[in-house]
Amino acid sequence: MTEMTGPVITQCPFCSVQCKAAVTIEPRQELRRSSEHGEATSHQVTEVKGWDNKASEGRICVKGLHAHQHAESTRRIMYPLIKKDGEFIRATWEETTNYIGKRIQAIQLKSGPDAIGVYGGGSLTNETAYLLGKFARALRTKYIDYNGRFCMSAAASAGAAVFGMDRGLTFPLADIEHAECIILAGTNIAECQPTLMPYFTRAQASGAQIIVIDPRRTSTATIADLHLAVHPGTDLLLADGILKMMIEQGHIDKNFIEKRTRDYDELASYLDSLSIQDIAKTTGIDEEKIRRAAQMFGKAKTGMVLTARGVEQQTDGHLAVRHFINLLLATGNIGREGCGYGAVTGQGNGQGGREHGQKADQLPGYRSIENDEDRAYVASVWGVTPDQLPRKGVSAYEMMELIDKGSMEALFVMGSNPIVSNPNAVFVEEAMKNIPFLVVADMFLSETAQLADVVLPVTSYFENTGTLTNLEGRVLLREAAVSPPGECKQDWEILRELAIALDRGEHFDYSSSEEIFDELRLASRGGIADYYGITYDRLRKEEGIYWPCRSEDDAGSGRIFEERFAHSDGRAVFTFQQSDVRQERVTASYPLMLTNGRVLSHYLTGVQTRFSRTLLSRQVESYVEVHPETARHYRIEDQKWVKISSRYGAFQVRCRFNDQIRKDTLFVPMHWGGVQNVNRATRAELDPFCKMPGFKTTAVRIEQIT
Ligand SMILES: Nc1nc2c(c(=O)[nH]1)N[C@H]1C(S)=C(S)[C@@H](COP(=O)(O)OP(=O)(O)OC[C@H]3O[C@@H](n4cnc5c(=O)[nH]c(N)nc54)[C@H](O)[C@@H]3O)O[C@H]1N2
Ligand SMILES: Nc1nc2c(c(=O)[nH]1)N[C@H]1C(S)=C(S)[C@@H](COP(=O)(O)OP(=O)(O)OC[C@H]3O[C@@H](n4cnc5c(=O)[nH]c(N)nc54)[C@H](O)[C@@H]3O)O[C@H]1N2
Ligand code: SF4
Ligand SMILES: [Mo]
Fold first, then answer.
1. What's the gap in Å between 671 CA and the centre of ligand 2?
2. C-alpha 312 chain-centroid distance
3. Does the CB atom of residue 677 touch ligand 2 within 6 A?
4. If you measure from the C-alpha of residue 193 to the centroid of ligand 1, how many angstroms do you get, rounded to a whole number?
């Protein structure tokens, strides 16, 4: 592509809103000093503005405004690097792909196809996510998974179980303004999807009431009509408490329950067996507040529930989401304007990234790798026989356990920084240090890339064409704004070159991302996430198209489940079981509950935002939020460094007093690696339904470092 001057339309690489931006690019005037592995890009961004689109309505947040800074960073990796005697040496693409090909073939010859693992991410475009899944299966390994396991797995599996399919929002964003009551549970939209906030404040202006459930009074909670500062990890019971009281108050929709759901009687007797006093005690929310929440939600003629990682990143996250969905099913608040469930998706392509096969048990179009019909269909699209497709592998964290055991001898990472983002990070880092062969495709020498044997330089969002699916299930096309710096390649080009080096080239003969998308359309055709009717041409003309979209004249639909749910009987299922996993409890040695999450100006493990000077300068180091009374009790002073330890490990951060957090809870952002990495302390237990780690609850102790 040619370098251009003047505004081009791009899309923010960070969160799931996928705000569009108009960016002015000019040739770079002066040459900048190049770093060890990089050189200055030939262009520079001089202005960024939000660009009108249906999700962000032209708004853009501070991360989107400054995203180009990491793309322009001189710390980008610009050439392939091969580690020799502990040092990275610049290599040509040909040398590098041949080297990877030989090593992987040797390992597979010696130890079998499953000795190789593939690890993807929700920032990758649909085309890349699809191709990565195909790549792993072409190598005949069953081991592929991705960082969405830590992100969307609880909500996605809950949606599939209750409704028969998972699409983040069951409603278009425009519906929010028509809701009379909105429950925001474990979701900090003001910092994590900031450009969506006006949807909620507009709803409020027309009379809606908002209930926020969060152990902290977050910036989202500041707009709440009712804030329930729940004890971390007890959301499932809180949802039950609210529903129990709604039933007592007579706020349920018997007609809806009868016509469109299953298992209500079991739910009702389960709720009968619970005592509201016990619920109040466990959740830390007094009865009166639970009653108020029940009244607010019960009386509303339209209502929504949105959950995010606060509820979901728990060892009972899958069930907790399902118990929240009970509230909607019992009141008939789904499939109508102003109603519905929303799993607030996280990453830029957190939605599309979970549909097309980079998950251990999945094939494109949300098909199942264990279903014979699905296998046969996808095999036919790929030109292989079904028995050539591996079966399902294991989840992301479980791959780390295989590496530790020595049974996984090589890992290919594309679009993730697992040694920072996995729970129990001390263990994970040790395992990754010992893996015989590690290849990482990234823009930067992330903590994980530093451990790699080979690093492959990839394009940033600014130089990469592909589709991404936003939190509503709306597919969007993001076209490259400039050509790649140095020798960076787009992810799909890298997968093509590697496939050639591994003698699988004939299945990867693509010359553009559009060609891959056309194959994805076919592979997803007839599946749950059906993209068949979506084309690049349509996306250029129509801005964005919701899936399922089964033909080129299908307009797609923002609101789903209007008539029926996706189970074969058309009904949704009530949930009445509790988790049998032991919940994390504080003890005398670990008396506080550690939770964690995000701040506005950083993104995930911070690899990209720490390379943006403006974003970094807003928050240069991590910290822990501690209630001043708690701090006094443990003799900790404001702004001093503290050590936080769990049964798993310890990390160090600066103390920040905050009286807007529960006294029994600590909060630490997740955006830093090394000694500040909160995951050095998080626990390794997984939710048995979806293998989501219990990130958000770890019993810890805190002490000031002297
Ligand atoms: N600025 C910014 N925005 C982002 C990201 C980012 O890194 N930075 N990441 C993106 C991604 S990938 C994701 S997944 C989303 C995440 O979006 P969110 O899930 O909204 O973000 P978190 O901060 O992880 O968690 C939300 C809230 O859960 C609360 N919480 C903790 N424990 C509990 C609990 O037990 N119960 C309840 N009810 N609440 C609890 C925390 O206090 C926090 O305020 O954000 C996306 N947007
Ligand atoms: N304690 C705790 N841990 C958590 C969470 C939490 O709330 N608390 N949240 C979890 C969640 S929700 C998530 S999503 C994960 C995220 O965890 P990670 O996947 O580790 O997060 P990122 O920092 O986004 O890492 C992405 C890497 O890919 C690179 N990258 C970005 N775009 C591209 C691309 O297009 N191609 C390629 N090849 N590389 C790219 C970036 O430079 C970066 O190094 O963390 C999880 N870990
Ligand atoms: S981080 Fe999210 S809200 Fe902010 S500009 Fe990017 S896509 Fe929009
Ligand atoms: Mo996420």
1. 10
2. 11
3. no
4. 10
pLDDT at 508: 98
Determine the average pLDDT of the residues in 185-190.
Answer: 98
How many C-beta neighbours within 10 Å does residue 402 have? 20
> In this structure, how many other beta carbons lie within 10 angstroms of the beta carbon of residue 94?
11
Task: Report whether pLDDT(524) > 70.
Answer: yes
Ligand 2 atom, smallest distance to 608 CA: 42
Ligand 2: which of 192, 347, 421, 683 to mutate, most ligand atoms within 8 Å of CB?
Answer: 421
Instruction: Please write the tens of the pLDDT for every residue from 221-254.
Output: 999 999 999 999 999 999 999 999 999 999 999 9
- Residue 42: predicted pLDDT: 73
Strand 81-84 relative to strand 454-457, pairing: antiparallel
Pocket of ligand 3 (CB under 6 A): 12, 14-15, 17-19, 56, 60-61, 63-64, 193-195
Buried b (16+ CB within 10 A) or exposed e, 483-500: bbbbebbbbbbbbbbbbb
Mean pLDDT along residues 127-133: 98
CA of 347 to the centre of ligand 2 (A): 8
For 99-127, write each residue's pLDDT tens digit: 999 999 999 999 999 999 999 999 999 99
Atom of ligand 3 nearest to the CA of 348: 7
Tokens coding 583? 């919940």
Edge-to-edge order in the sheet of strand 466-469: 466-469, 474-478, 544-546
Q: Are 74 and 33 in contact (CB under 8 A)?
A: yes
Ligand 2 pocket, mutate which of 354, 416, 677 (most atoms under 8 A from CB): 416
CB contact at 8 A, 468 and 126: yes
| Average pLDDT of the segment spanning 572-583 | 94
Burial class (CB in 10 A: 0-12, 13-18, 19+), 254: exposed
